[in-house]
## 1
Amino acid sequence: MKLSAFQFNLPDELLAEYPADNRDEARLMVLNRKEQTIEHKMFKDLIDYFEEDDVLVLNNTKVFPARLFGNKEKTGARIEVFLLRELNPETRLWDVLVDPARKIRIGNKLYFGDDETLVAEVIDNTTSRGRTLRFLFDGSYEEFRNKLTELGETPLPKYIKREVEPEDAERYQTIFAKNEGAVAAPTAGLHFSKHLLKRLEIKGIDFAEVTLHVGLGTFSSVEVEDLSKHKMDSEEMIIDEAAAKIINNGIERKKRVCAVGTTAMRALESSVSSGYRLNAYSGWTNKFIFPPYDFSIANAMITNFHTPKSTLLMMVSAFAGHDFIKKAYDEAIKEKYRFYTYGDAMLII
């Protein structure tokens, strides 16, 4: 498959700026791969497609407020700092992106907050926009992390042009988020409400939680026509023994094992045994899934509607079939489904 196979015209007005009023009342398009049918439902109707002992695989990563705004020493220029990952807790070294990057050089200092109690020094250049920062802060590590949380804002994707609002802190987080470390939400999980999870539990559906800390690499654009030459950024992931056992039980009982989101799917496909079972794993993955690809663990998936030429669209095409996804996306545009982070959802069975 070539990159150009994933291009389509997406009207700007279909990019969702806000989430649905209620989490589980986003729209849900249901694709049946065997029957090649498309149904239009609400997300809370999801329960009708699952039976007792089916398994939903949830990504329990938690988004931290990764976007900070600081001022450059001397000039006072406003600089956006996007925290990517912590390199060393003791020395408070972080990998970050800065914008505008041309103004930020090694040795520069940035001041954050009105009281300027948090300062960062630029230690190294990593990429064109990437820098290594050392944070200088008078206090314990816990106080330092609290300061980052206090000064940071919800890292909504750049396509959302409006200002971050207080509600985003809650809505750009799944209700099962536990392990902090993501700079972007696993968006398919945003549609689950407490009420829907309870109803699924009462029906006897099993939940398995995995962790994949979503990095910005998930959204990096693909620059090569030959997809085999694209390299994904590594993301940290954890699958514990308990989750692996629940999922493997589902496989052995020939139940529906549904990955909630592309991140959960990528975690599952990154730790497969030779006997097509899931292994517990703690480490990093840079797995890139595009057609043709044989999936080993999940036989269903929930996902949002993705943007043209994105790696997320490529994975979904590999799972549902390229022609079927093309047809579904044509229908989604015609029916005015909402796309991307705060958009509507798709269930593929």
## 2
Amino acid sequence: MATLGWTEDFARQITPDDDGSLPARVTQVHRDRLAVLTADGPREVALPNGHPSGSFAVGDWVMISASQSVMRRRLDRHSLLQRRVHSRAGSRNIGEYRLIGANIDTLFITTSCNADFNVARLERYLTLAHDAGVEPVILLTKADMADDPESYAIEAQKLGRDLAVLVLDAHAPDVPERLAQWCTMGKTVALSGSSGVGKTTLTNALTGGDEATQGVRDDTRGRHTTTARSLHPLPQGGWLIDTPGIRGLGVSDAATGIDVTFAEITELAAQCKFRDCAHEGEPGCAVQAAIKSGEIDADRLDRWRKLSAEDAVNTASSGAAMGKGYGITKRGKGKAVAKQIKAAQKHKKR
């Protein structure tokens, strides 16, 4: 079970009511059933009435009936990656969130050394990871096709203290070795990023698989390949969740993630003369002082403002609807983000 990612946190959730049930990890989510892995191998289990498939994510742990192959309940998650979607009128999307993956340890944020590289979008992915308590790692692919791949790495490295940034040729034989430290026994990593940045190629490199990939277009952008989320075993003993390309990445209820992603602004804001300082020219503004001294880039502050404003609006609207009822619990989220908050506080003292 440990090789599947089973931990003491999950074991403590087992109760006498689970007698006759088996723990299983979700590998795929279908319309009316789940594909799962148990200690005895793969199975498919039915979802009873009242349990919509949209409330489950690849990577979830569930308790299933040992005799009837029916899902009984889902265990609390230690992390959950989810993104807000803007539903159409009358949509049945739960809380207007789409689940990306559960019980993930590391998010490989994948972009390429070409026109796909976008700092603002990377900050959104970092917010997503930090808010879930998941370690982010930026992978810069297609380095073999770029004239100066290191310039992209320099820009990405500015987005976080101690942020791991790797420049890769996804076809190179050393990819598994370079990513090995995050793919060890029982650990779960997720690959996310725009369509065509090489996620399927990286999946093949890490798993030893041969999923079909698409060629590069004339404008050097890749093509969309992955269409569904799934859990893949890794030779090192870990697990990989590959996800379809995401065109839009809205944020909601992500204040903690924003604070950690923009830690240098968050820390300086606490030093402003006025508690409600908008950092737009008020006297005693520590953030504006840092911009004048070159410590903070003005564009970075503008992106922080935009993301914070979007989060405030979306959080208010989602709270008026269903909120995160099917996501990670408030208590679970608090535990998940604790290490990011601790890291930010550590840097604040320096």
## 3
Amino acid sequence: MTSDVLSSKELSKIDPVFGQLSFDNHEQIVFCNDKDTGLKAIIGIHNTVLGPALGGTRMWNYNNEWEALNDVLRLSRGMTFKSAITGLNLGGGKAVIIGDAKTQKTPELMRKFGEFVHSLSGKYITAEDVGMTTEDMDTVREVTPYVTGISESKGGAGNPSPITAYGVFMGMKAAAQFKYGSDVLEDKTIFVQGIGHVGEALVEHLTNEGAKVTIADINQERLEEVRSKYDVTIYGGQDIYSERMDIYAPCALGATINDDTIYKLNADIIAGAANNQLADEVKHGKLLKDRNILYAPDFLINAGGIINVYAELENYDRQEIMRKTENIFNTTLEILDRAKANDVTTNSAALSIAKERIETRKREQGK
């Protein structure tokens, strides 16, 4: 009798949900399918101790369902800690729709997705993410009230991207304050990777402050469009991670800090809008610390978007949105100081604060 040794990847496929490394005691995973509209979606609800799970819907042309599942698990987990550390009474959730947003998205598909969201009776509240627009959220709103980020004309807070970018800007300035002793970004060399709505808004803040900004994106037309508006340079090299820069701002998809890039990275600070920037938060967080590269935890500094859509639930105004988003500066400094004092990674320090708040609420609820 012989027994084959299975790789960890093969083992996790035997248990495709509970066997995932990204499965972190999620409360609920919902698989949504509709033949007529072509909808194939996954909703991940990580934790609802602090409140209903709020998180955007991402439409992406994943290579396979395995990749989509891993993404929604990582993203929904991140939303739990984002809301907790920002002081919002929300849990963490996220949704992904498998498909090409440019060619496969239809109003019928969005309404059908909204029906699945509605079936959860408010346990999950959706919002805009990659591949989605404010108009898509308006369509979802036709079939369920459990959606945020709808048009201002319909009583919503509108596109969250500018507020997300402002929060990242605040977090970046806090990291500069900690690293350099000044939060002034004038003449700092900053590479912004990913020039979507958030990336462009961040570029505007940085160029207004006089930073030397280089932009990178897979969409050349988009790069030219942004360069025509702002004083930036388009990256023309082959390996952005090896370039000397003061600040690296990943604003596209996650896991750009990984085994292949981390030793090449030639920056003082990482501060960007992308979710889950560390492919392995423990391993890569420690390696960044060892290399004296300051990491501003993504789930903290990119929280402006959720602050913006939370306003729809709590009915606070634009002034309060901006006040809460500006406070990301203070919270970032608090976490960086805590990490230094306890000789831990910045990601670990941020997670510990978020988890403390969740555990405190659980004790108050007697759970």
